[in-house]
Amino acid sequence: MSATPTTSREWHLVARPHGWPKPEDFALREAAVAEPGEGQILVRNIHMSVDPYMRGRMNDVRSYVPPFELDEPMQGGAVGEVVASRSDAFRPGDHVLHSLGWREYALVGAEHAVKVDPELAPLSTYLGVLGMPGLTAYAGLLEVASFKEGDAVFVSGAAGAVGLQVGQIARLKGASRVIGSAGTDEKVKALTEEYGFDAAFNYKKGPVAQQLKEAAPEGIDVYFDNVGGEHLEAAIGALKLHGRATLCGAIAGYNETEPQPGPRNMVAIIGKRLRLQGMIVRDHQALQPQFVEEVGGWVRSGELKYRETVMNGVENAVDAFLGMLRGENTGKMIVTF
What we know:
Distance between the termini: 16 Å
Helix content: 10-25%
Shape: globular
Strand content: 25-35%
Low-confidence stretches: none
Radius of gyration: 20 Å
Number of strands: 15
């Protein structure tokens, strides 16, 4: 194991974005690497995650997670190797999952780290298919949307880290039809040819409501929303009586500077007796063991496929984040150091 360096590069938010984030809103700075105190571990990060929710943390508003502080290192999921430990729970050489990404070395309280096994699955998967996005898909479909065998399911943002998994889990659990939307023809092709979606469409090529009606002429029972906006309005129109929707994300509006209009057909929620429920993944941690066992089995058997888009180097983390917001990734966007 190489000697621990005395400095570490880390990304700071230096200005709160107005609209789309710009590279100059961020700064890559050097910081001293401290020795761990009692109950702490020093981790050399190997992979870090960039996720849509991070855009919300750049705004100085109250939410379910605190905003990023200006001129402080940002945070996010990361996996790495323990290089020094003052905790009985970890020793050097262990691999851990924690929430202090956006930096090369992280000083982590042992109670905030989870040991992961690179022999069971590649380390990067603990940030994606077997991590927070995977649990989001699993809990959002099965628990929040009360999916049942025979349901027709529509997923927006279906080529992203969460959407890819929602569609495949629905298929494996016996959906009658799985439809996805994505932003390029290449992604649409991959959804049907590689990931088992019954139909998919490019939302940039025409009204979502019209394309959804063509893809699901008999309607849908479940909608998994990663996008909001026009997609949500189209889904309300397509949902059958007693349909259910999981509202997981609204990336279509994250970088807008003015409030976006809501669906114009919300009166249909009453007549159809629809259930639209928002979700935050941390509310569903009790499902974690079941999720890892079931989805891990599907991954090992090849029944559930996953994709990662990887950018190399901590210096490229902001480019990866901005690319993810623009939809340049298929599957999970990962930064590898």
